[in-house]
Amino acid sequence: MSVKTDAWIVEAGEKGSKPVATQLIRDTFEFDDPADDEALVSPLFGCMEGNMGHVLDRRPIDIAMARGEERCVIGNAGVVRVEKCGSEITNVKDGDTAILFCNGQPDEYGYPQKIFAYDDPGSIGLLAKTTKLKAHQMIPIPADTKYSLEQWAGFSLRYVTAWSNWELAYGTLRLLLSEGDLPAPQVWGWGGGVCLGELSLAKHFGCKATQIASTDERLQTIRDQGLTAVDRREFKDLYFDKSKFRKDEDYTGKYLAAAQYRDLVDAHVIRFSLKTSCQGTVTR
């Protein structure tokens, strides 16, 4: 038996040709009935994540081709309604709402080796009206939650990942330097939603958090979270081209000016970091 559903589909590119950006195609998608350790679910809200853009750009790879599939369905952040549980599902029940946990293929310790609706073959993302998930990919949302399902959809991928990354990074730091040694570490990040989540956690833990971005909208979002924002556009001329540096005076002048500004910023950060780190006595 099989399930047919309406979905937005990504098709594989032509073998042997240079990867080119693609677009979603709306069509009927068919997949096998859920197994006993899977549940049939209906996506309610989704969140556009950076990995989805990578799939459509076919950068760094053509995901459908890498999975050995002619076409696939993406979308690995969002909220679903559980429609029908397999006999081995115990963490959710029919009718529950849950966030998607995008761990496609966990290793023996529970860490992901493949990501659901990305490089995990056979996984069907949330850009389908119906899909199927394994038990560990559904985290039930509390019935008395004060947050909207739309907020949970945004939380789904980026903040679960952000917490895992932050817990490891901060825990490692504190093995070396206690809060007495370094009460307010400097934490910098460059990236999208996951990075913003990590830096928000850093601020919560008393760190001085800074994020780098290059658009007015993102810079304002960073500031709205109480973080320090650095405009990457100030450093747009730092790309070094050896040939142009020798021959193009205008390019050379812009590069040297940008490099001088960068060095001033670096020196300020180093002085500030040294001042902060010297507030305590480091023991070995």
Structural overview:
By secondary structure, this protein is of the alpha+beta class. It folds into 2 domains: 140 residues, Quinone Oxidoreductase, Chain A, domain 1 (Alpha-Beta Complex); 120 residues, Rossmann fold, CATH 3.40.50. 34% of the residues lie in helices and 25% in strands. The chain has 7 helices and 13 strands. A 5-stranded antiparallel sheet has the order 9-3-5-6-10. A 3-stranded antiparallel sheet has the order 2-1-4. The C terminus is likely disordered.
Which properties best describe this structure?
disordered C terminus; 7 helices; 284 residues; 34% helix; 2 domains; Rossmann fold; globular; 5-stranded antiparallel β-sheet; alpha+beta; 13 strands; Quinone Oxidoreductase, Chain A, domain 1
Based on the coordinates given, report the CATH architecture of the largest domain: Alpha-Beta Complex
Measured distance between first and last alpha carbons: 64 Å
Tell me what portion of residues adopts beta-strand conformation: 25-35%
Number of helices: 7
Structural class, from helix and strand content?
alpha+beta
Strands of the biggest beta sheet: in what spatial order? 9-3-5-6-10
Q: Could you please say which CATH topology of the largest domain applies here?
A: Quinone Oxidoreductase, Chain A, domain 1
In total, how many domains does the architecture comprise?
2
Number of strands: 13
> What is the chain-wise order of helices and strands?
EEEHHEEEEEEEHEHEHEHH
Radius of gyration over C-alpha positions, nearest whole angstrom: 23 Å
Q: Identify the CATH class of the largest domain.
A: Alpha Beta
What integer is the average pLDDT? 89
- The H-level CATH homologous superfamily of the largest domain, spelled out, is Medium-chain alcohol dehydrogenases, catalytic domain
Approximate helicity band: 25-40%
Stretches where pLDDT is under 50 for at least 5 consecutive residues are: 269-284
Give the overall silhouette. globular
